[in-house]
Predict the structure.
Amino acid sequence: MPKFSGYGSNSNTIARALDRLNLKTPLQEWSNETVEAMVNAFVDEKFPTIVALNKIDHADADKNISKIAKMQDPKTIILCSAISEVFLRRLAKQGYIKYIEGGEFFDTQEDLVDDGDETGGGLKEMDEKLKTRLENLKDMVLYRFGNTGVVQALSRTAELLGLVPVFPVKNINNFASGSGPSTGGPSPVFRDCVLVKKNSTVGDVYRKIMGDAPLAYSETAGGVRVGEDDMVAVGKNDVLAFKVGRA
């Protein structure tokens, strides 16, 4: 225990590290190999790590990814292109494409017209330069890797830390988060996200957001009312609308 206390650890952390190894050998009988294995297990437990490899949009990305994958556990690696994610979000906000953050594809005006929507989803027409940039992004990122990896890196980090993302919304029917942007567009969907520990309750989430304000009732997806003691988890009560006031 004293050997690890300088890292802000406690007996529970060390016990979980020992459980990783299923180690039963008395300390005085540990070999150098056992010590090394214990240190590695402790580091994994105390400092869980995700390696986000950015700039996968570069032409030589595959070569660099292969090099790093040989030195790092592939399960901890997430491939990312932050600049691509930012670019897609900006175009979606400006009304050129429809794109769900972290998604595998996007739709342009032409795509939606081809699918039978005569209005093209109300999207703006793009010039050839912008079309070319988007086609290159598709080829270099989305087709090769499936997504930009940014949302996936955040989700994997939350999972690794034992956190549950919960989305508080104002309207449980359309998942809107309040008034729309100043441009007069629709209200943003799933704008806010709160991270809570596993085994947290609806009441825990409410108090984290609203403090001591009285709670009249809570609703989850489908308009289903949930109690303060109901648990939240990924896919269960992780979208919540709160009505403040006396029940």
About this structure: The mean pLDDT is 89.
